[in-house]
Q: What sequence folds into this?
């Protein structure tokens, strides 16, 4: 049984019910199951108002990197907010933004030299799409009015980002009349990430996917301004891990057809896949790179769209040339968020963050090997610090009936047992903060096995 909430929370929850509209939520659900009040965060744990401590097994939507309330991030926030909380970024600059580009630039691949600031993953993607389109126009490629994207991709919830996400799901299908023109390409999942892989026919599957990619670009390459992809793992699409060889092929096809390659590392960046960026594992550098989520270690909203010098050059000119990139947000380049991002990046230099990620990778393999022994678990797989599997009904081997809301129930029961997980459809995954001790992952595995067996 969950611990009861303190009595004062009943009024607060009534207030929530009366006025607050939560994200990604059919609000009727909260009539029976109100949102869980959280009063604190400490390391890899969240502290609930009922006095319980839960492991943040999904890093609060993949944002929290070094743990909640990390003293160095908190003090960077306090210091910067007291000194200069915010200033508009058009016509002004400041030290935290300059320190941030100085710290980040050497960690990026290729010739990504120009950073455009915005506030979240979706706007980082919007910026990349608009930059790609405008750069193509300004280099004389006026017919490039479409985009390319992977099936099962997710790039955020603003209309531009929705337009290059997967269309055929409940979240985006209804907006289809409003969206960008986009052609979609399917890539196979990489069985080599599975803990019990069946590699029969894999070389042929890979060769045919390569061939399919070439045919796709032959058909659509001329009309595309850019192709966008989440490198190596499509997170919201159900933790679909896809092969680095196809990312290399994607790079080659973009080059061959004059299409910019946008890599969306909003979720995969900052060590989640075991390397600082996922694209490093394929040796691929994009023309435009989107970063957010872990950029501030999960403390404040901030994002960056990095562009190559060649793209930047297409925007250069006299004020009267009309070549400027006329995009911005009120909080673009917020100094407090930049200072926290600098503190987060400093931790990568001063502490063994990527070594911890390797320990989490080992623990994740053990965890999903144990989970894979359960009859309700299929296709257990691991990439870096991310472990995932498919949940099925053990009696049929088929997906759970959506009416049973198995994932939601698992989420709520797990909270009562000290663990935050939130399956995406039939995909259950763990992506904890990079400071999580392996023993906590073992505990989480035991909790999940217990819950799956109920
Ligand atoms: C790959 C990817 N891109 C973009 C976004 C959108 O980021 P935000 O929710 O910060 O707008 C997400 C969010 O989950 C994401 O996973």
A:
């Amino acid at each position: 049984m969950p611990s009861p909430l303190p009595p004062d929370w009943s009024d607060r929850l009534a207030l929530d019910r009366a006025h607050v509209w939560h994200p990604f939520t059919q609000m009727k659900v909260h009539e029976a199951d109100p949102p869980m009040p959280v009063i604190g965060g400490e390391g890899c744990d969240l502290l609930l108002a009922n006095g319980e401590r839960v492991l943040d097994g999904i890093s609060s939507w993949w944002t929290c990197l070094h743990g909640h309330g990390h003293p160095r991030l908190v003090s960077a926030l306090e210091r910067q907010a007291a000194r200069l909380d915010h200033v508009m970024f058009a016509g002004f600059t400041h030290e935290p933004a300059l320190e941030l580009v100085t710290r980040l630039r050497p960690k990026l691949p290729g010739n990504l030299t120009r950073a455009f600031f915005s506030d979240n993953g979706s706007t980082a993607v919007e910026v990349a799409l608009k930059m790609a389109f405008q750069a193509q126009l300004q280099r004389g490629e006026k017919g490039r009015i479409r985009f390319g994207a992977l099936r099962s991709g997710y790039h955020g919830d603003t209309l531009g980002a929705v337009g290059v996400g997967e269309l055929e799901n409940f979240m985006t299908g209804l907006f289809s009349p409003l969206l960008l023109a986009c052609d979609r390409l399917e890539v196979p999942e990489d069985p080599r990430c599975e803990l019990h892989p069946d590699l029969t026919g894999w070389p042929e599957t890979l060769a045919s996917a390569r061939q399919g990619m070439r045919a796709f670009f032959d058909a659509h390459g001329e009309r595309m301004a850019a192709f966008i992809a989440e490198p190596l793992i499509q997170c919201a699409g159900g933790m679909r891990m896809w092969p680095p060889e196809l990312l290399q092929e994607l790079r080659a096809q973009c080059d061959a057809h004059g299409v910019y390659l946008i890599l969306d590392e909003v979720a995969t960046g900052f060590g989640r896949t075991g390397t600082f960026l996922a694209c490093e594992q394929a040796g691929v550098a994009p023309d435009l790179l989107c970063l957010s989520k872990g950029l501030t270690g999960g403390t404040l909203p901030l994002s960056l769209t990095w562009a190559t010098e060649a793209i930047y050059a297409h925007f250069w000119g006299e004020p009267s040339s009309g070549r400027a990139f006329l995009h911005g947000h009120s909080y673009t380049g917020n100094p407090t968020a930049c200072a926290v991002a600098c503190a987060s990046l400093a931790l990568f230099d001063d502490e063994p963050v990527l070594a911890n990620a390797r320990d989490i990778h080992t623990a994740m393999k053990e965890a999903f090997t144990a989970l894979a022994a359960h009859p309700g678990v299929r296709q257990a797989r691991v990439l870096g610090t991310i472990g995932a599997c498919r949940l099925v009904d053990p009696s049929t081997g088929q997906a759970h009936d959506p009416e049973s809301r198995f994932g939601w129930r698992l989420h709520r029961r797990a909270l009562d047992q000290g663990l935050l997980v939130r399956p995406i459809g039939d995909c259950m995954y763990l992506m904890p903060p990079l400071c999580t001790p392996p023993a906590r992952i073992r505990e989480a595995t035991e909790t999940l096995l217990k819950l799956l067996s109920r």
Q: What stands out?
A: The chain has two domains: 8-66+354-452, 73-350. The pocket of pyridoxal-5'-phosphate is lined by residues 120-122, 125, 154-156, 230, 235-236, 264, 266-267, 292 (CB under 6 Å). Residues 380 and 389 are 4 Å apart (CA to CA).
